[in-house]
């Protein structure tokens, strides 16, 4: 069980051609403690939330309009100014710093799931939530007693840096 990931609680099965494992999402659960994570997994009704959302932009904007109307208004102002570079810069400088900083999970996915409007297709594939340096370090190749290097190893000189990330 992982405590660094959020979980998706599986809801009713959906009859979707070419996606037989598709289910409604009945709830999103934030990073649980180890005991709760173990219970989630043993129940068979939960999967890790990889945070990968697939939707049409128009559908997403409709949901933003419904659940976060102020955010939708401001994003629409930016979109309307986008083609005119001068206007774009002016609007971006005015609006962007004032946008509410809210995760899509909390603002859109959770309320939409509560209304039966979010589906999940459980899948098994390599994935990690690279949210901290230890997760990143696990994904980068390393030699014994050397740092993990992202990029050209020939450009890095490292001494006594095992476990480091460059």
TrEMBL record:
Output the InterPro entries linked to this UniProt entry. Answer: Mannose-6P_isomerase_type2 (IPR051161), NTP_transferase_dom (IPR005835), Nucleotide-diphossugar_trans (IPR029044)
Pfam families attached to this UniProt entry: NTP_transferase
Domain Nucleotidyl transferase residue range list: 1-141
Any one Gene Ontology biological process term?
GDP-mannose biosynthetic process
**Source species, domain of life:** Eukaryota
* UniProt-recorded Gene Ontology molecular function terms: mannose-1-phosphate guanylyltransferase (GTP) activity
Q: Which PANTHER family match?
A: MANNOSE-1-PHOSPHATE GUANYLYLTRANSFERASE
Protein's UniProt name: Nucleotidyl transferase domain-containing protein
Q: Which organism is it from?
A: Photinus pyralis
